[in-house]
Amino acid sequence: MDTSSIVILDFGSQYTQLIARRIREQNVFSVVLPCTVSVDEIRAQKPIGIILSGGPCSVYDAEAPAADPAILALEMPVLGICYGLQFITHHLGGKVRPADKREYGHAEISIVDKETPLFADIPASINVWMSHGDEAIELPAGFHLTARTSNAVAGIANPGARIWAVQFHPEVHHTKQGTAVLRNFLFNICKATPDWTAEHFIQSTVVSIREKIGDGHAICALSGGVDSSVAAVLVHRAIGERLTCVFVNNGVLRKNEFFKVQENLREKLGLNLFAVDASARFLAKLAGVTDPETKRKIIGNEFIAVFDDEAHRIALETGGVDWLVQGTLYPDVIESSSVKGPSQTIKSHHNVGGLPETMKLKLIEPLRDLFKDEVRRIGRDLQMPDDILQRQPFPGPGLAVRILGEISPERVALLQEADDIVVTEIKRAGLYQQIWQSFAVLLPVKSVGVMGDQRTYAYTCAIRAVHSEDGMTADWVPLPYDVLKTISSRIVNEIRGINRVVYDITSKPPGTIEWE
Length: 516
What we know:
Layout lengths: L4 E6 L5 H9 L4 E6 L4 H6 L4 E4 L25 E4 L1 H9 L3 E17 L13 E14 L5 E5 L4 E6 L4 E4 L11 H12 L8 H16 L4 E5 L3 H14 L3 E7 L7 H13 L3 E5 L1 H8 L5 H27 L4 E3 L4 H7 L25 E3 L7 H10 L4 H4 L19 H20 L8 E15 L2 E14 L7 E2 L4 H14 L3 E6 L13
Helix pairs in contact: 5-6, 5-11, 6-11, 8-9, 13-14
């Protein structure tokens, strides 16, 4: 990549992905790598700077992340954040210990060194967000204090070694001058060029796809959602009719979606689309399965098996297919593939964690480095219609991860009807584009009810609506009472088999957006 880039080493912080987003918001490319990567792997990214994230461990713990201290001697600017400050202090000869008074939440810091470029044009006293139980009590040789709280060190620097660090989290909104701190690191210290733009991404990606595919033929896994549609348009721009899009009915799509998506993609995007109804095949594989991870991997493997079958058919018509295009996004990659670093794998995504070890088709994932809002920005620059770009995210495994417990055709039909009511009423209230995701979940819980003076014993349906920027964190939406009332009334009155509706008011974290 010929743009300025920042490598973020993940030490397990819940905020690591926010660091990446804040850097991207300044039109500078960023990539998150496990802190355990080698120096050579970092150099391969050709970064202009490195950021060390926070983390839950103590640097003196036996289980502290095994990062190579040589990352501090790469002759490029380094910014340590929270645990990153302690890592720098510990490995360069300073001392870190458990703090007498831990700092969590809001705090006020005073800038001690007003000449440091990291704090240029920042007030002498600012409110920040702290989250640490350890403190640096002795700085390494060559370092000096740049900021402090009333209790502890809040910032240190060694300009000669090109290393800066802060104990607070500049990436979170609670730190009012956080963006300014990160901008100072990017532009005052790293001398970054803000060239990570949608136009640049489209041009470089199209060139890269052409070079990679050559004269070959590709098939694209289309779901009808934003991610796969933008991926398809990008690849179509690169290789034209040598792209065949395949849309699979996996048996757990939304109501009437198999037909709506075909109409949308053929008429509005002009894509070469082949639709496959494999619902019976998927539902047979899912029968009796209740474990969420097993569901995801079954669907992932079956998707690939279907595409292999379709690739063979298309190959007979085109002379060969070598490539499979998928709309994998950066959060999918991060949440699925943290096995080399200290962050936990949250869940496997069908297009990342569910892939079999041996696969006949080679992958093209043009959106692999992007967050959802960046994908929509790319789509707008590609002049794609808003009714595709503004569609709420829908999980790759479909309704399978919204049906808790066993999946059956009858339970799928129940959830399809409930989900259709939720989406319809959210749109009718003019809230659809204001909400990140809104949907229904079918619970494996039956309860007693009464309808028409008769006893019922039927399923419970949960309603979920969240606000988010990229799916990495989310807050539940306080839907208007009249909207909730209408949704609940319609579900229990119109769907035989559901007699109770509940509303999920859990944010992410501690929950996830999807229930499975």
